[in-house]
Design a protein that fits this description.
Helix content is 40%, strand content 17%. With 151 residues, it is of the alpha/beta class. It has one domain: Nucleotidyltransferase, domain 5. Strands 3-2-1-4-5 form a five-stranded mixed sheet. The model has no long low-confidence stretch (mean pLDDT 84).
């Protein structure tokens, strides 16, 4: 990016489908999927003056395989290292906190597919110009949460 607009970095660590969204004050955005770029590549490119990161605070939960938990925590540690090495101010937010901010809650028995579509609809209402997949919507919403709640 040529200008030095403030970047709000929303990070959804995910075990296999994590995403990072850079949301700029001028309306521009960039979404990076862990599938497209390794965290090492992302960390090397992270030279965002005036950036602030909001990372979803994640943990394993009953029913997750050991492999999924290991992958999730590996991503989380690499994200923390990339942000620390680049001296990016970082806040952590629980999924419940950022979802409550938008007034959404997963309904009991709601499938993951339906839930993700609902989150994407919330995003489209707030930022209609942003094009993303249902898997990327969390990272964008986390970035927007960071911009709206900045200190």
């Amino acid at each position: 990016m040529e200008d030095k607009e403030r970047a709000y970095i929303g990070i959804d660590p995910g075990s296999a489908s994590g995403n990072i969204c850079f949301l700029y004050d001028n309306g521009h955005y960039e979404i990076i999927s862990f599938k497209d770029k390794t965290l090492w590549e992302w960390g090397n490119e992270l030279d965002r003056e005036g950036a602030e990161a909001v990372v979803e605070a994640v943990h394993g939960f009953p029913g997750m395989s050991a492999i999924a938990v290991t992958s999730l925590m590996k991503n989380f540690g690499q994200i923390e290292m990339a942000l620390a090495l680049n001296e990016i101010p970082t806040r952590y937010v629980s999924p419940q906190t950022w979802m409550k901010f938008y007034g959404v809650k997963k309904d009991k028995g709601e499938s993951k597919t339906v839930w993700k579509k609902r989150l994407r609809e919330v995003l489209q209402q707030r930022l209609p110009h942003v094009e993303c997949t249902t898997e990327q919507a969390d990272a964008v919403l986390i970035a927007l949460y960071g911009r709206c709640t900045r200190v």
